[in-house]
Design goal:
Number of helices: 2
Number of strands: 29
Radius of gyration: 24 Å
CATH architecture of the largest domain: 5 Propeller
Shape: globular
Helix content: under 10%
CATH topology of the largest domain: Tachylectin-2, Chain A
Structural class: mainly beta
Number of domains: 2
CATH class of the largest domain: Mainly Beta
Length: 474
């Protein structure tokens, strides 16, 4: 369904009292992937992806070995599997050595910040596709792509895919039949080098030239200051395509002093990461921040193991009537084991929790209810079908006691309601519905007139999503 959000091209009008709101997710109190093997004994980090492959969940994540020396380059990419998405197994693939043994769940994908997806257009031997920051022995560091038949043994394309992007976040978009790729790059913004996000689309025919998508501005510095920090930029993003807008889970990095002092580039590298919602209405269009830029998920409301920083998987997964997003939670802030010259401090590292310094957890919310429009009393909102070709409307809605939703057809030329399709002819909807069909006295088909729109009257309720369709809805 289409999330109901500001600027949606099919939302043509709404009354002033309608409130644009976001849903607070449920947070599981304990991590779902323990740090319990030689391969990931120091930490599990979902700089990676979770995919439902048939009836099995598969997770690719960054694993920090039990004897981690403080170098990120010592981390490897592991693959875990689960039947329910909650209890994860770590098979012995016998591919990579760790602590003198190959009895572990490590893959041979040597990417930093990897994103893994299933490419439905590829032949079986290239079914899995990965994007990430990779060091080639001859060609050096670059953003590259890799493919695999089983998701464990990978072939890396030695040719650079994108220039200078150490953070890559991607998801397969079934609505464009391509991979949506976001790239983290550093550019000078207001006299400081800051991390900004570029976007691209990838198919087997190649990738589009990355374009600037999300650039931190003065408001981000104000938001950082209001939270006790100094400046802000964007560390990464998770992505959720929908039939309408694409939703992003933006990693806000709020910096604290000091900045790096050993180079002329005064980067912010100490601080905290919070998650906020952003959205893009049209393919290649502008990315919008949620009004006022409120945080969606912050370390303050997380369990103790995630009170320092938060990061997300490359995309969420739908599980029944819920949507699940796997997250990384750090107990400490970014750069916690480094000194002010960005060098490893053995004394700080010695304070690392023996149970792991980073963990993978889970947050979830009702499917198609991440955001929406809320009417605290009585408000109206107008929805227009595309080109008048769709003749039925389904709503994802919920009302409070004594609340209701009813509909009227309105002629957009003169603003008048259509006879037989007025509010008094509407069959009210009350309660909690994932797919409530708009009906008037038993009739649910809209007249074939491109000038018509559906006006919803909502009392004490929330419209989360909607879907115009050409076919009958059961």
């Amino acid at each position: 369904m289409h999330p109901a959000c500001e600027g949606h091209p099919q939302i043509t009008w709404l009354s002033p009292g309608m409130q644009f709101v976001q849903t607070e997710p449920d947070v599981l109190s304990e991590p779902v992937v323990p740090c319990d093997t030689e391969a990931d004994g120091s930490g599990t980090q979902i700089y990676g992806s979770v995919i439902r492959d048939g009836g099995v969940f598969r997770m690719w994540y960054t694993a920090f070995p039990r004897e981690w020396d403080g170098r990120d380059s010592s981390a490897r990419i592991a693959c875990a599997e689960s039947d329910d998405g909650l209890v994860w197994q770590k098979p012995h693939y016998g591919v990579m050595e760790c602590a003198g043994s190959t009895d572990n769940h490590l893959t041979d994908l040597r990417f930093i910040s990897p994103s893994v997806l299933i490419d439905p257009t590829a032949p079986p031997e290239m079914r899995y596709r990965a994007f990430g920051w990779h060091h080639h022995p001859l060609n050096g560091w670059a953003s590259r792509t890799a493919f695999s038949e089983d998701g464990i043994r990978w072939t890396v394309d030695p040719v650079s895919l994108y220039q200078s992007a150490d953070g890559i976040y991607s998801v397969w978009n079934p609505y464009t039949n391509s991979a949506l790729v976001m790239l983290g790059r550093s550019r000078y913004v207001r006299s400081l080098p800051r991390r900004i996000l570029f976007s691209s689309e990838w198919t087997h025919n190649g990738a589009t030239e990355p374009v600037s998508a999300l650039v931190p501005d003065e408001y981000d510095d104000i938001a950082a200051s209001a939270r006790g920090f100094n400046t802000g930029d964007y560390y990464g993003i998770g992505l959720m395509p929908t039939p309408g807008p694409t939703i992003g889970f933006l990693w806000h990095f709020r910096h604290q002093f000091p900045y790096l002092s050993d180079t002329r580039n005064q980067f912010g590298n100490f601080g905290r990461t919070d998650i906020a919602l952003v959205y893009q209405h049209e393919r290649g269009g502008r990315w919008q921040h949620f009004p006022g830029r409120p945080d969606w998920l912050t370390p303050e409301r997380m369990p103790a193991w995630a009170r320092g920083c938060l990061y997300t998987a490359s995309s969420p997964v739908d599980v029944g009537d819920e949507t699940w997003l796997y997250i990384t939670g750090d107990a400490h802030r970014h750069g916690w084991f480094l000194n002010h010259e960005w060098k490893r401090d053995p004394k700080l590292k010695a304070m690392m929790d023996p149970g792991g310094f980073t963990h993978i957890g889970l947050v979830k919310w009702p499917k198609d209810r991440l955001l929406g429009y809320h009417a605290p009393l009585l408000e109206r909102i107008e929805l227009a079908p595309r080109a008048g070709a769709e003749n039925r409307l389904a709503l994802n809605v919920a009302t409070r006691p004594y609340g209701f939703i009813r509909a009227a057809l309105v002629n957009r030329r003169d603003g008048k309601h259509v006879e037989g399709f007025d509010f008094q002819d509407s069959i009210p909807v009350s309660g909690d519905h994932r797919e409530a069909v708009v009906r008037w006295k038993g009739q649910d088909a809209l007249p074939p007139d491109a000038s018509l729109a559906v006006q919803l009257e909502i009392s004490k309720g929330t419209l989360y999503a909607f879907d115009f369709t050409r076919e009958a809805i059961s």
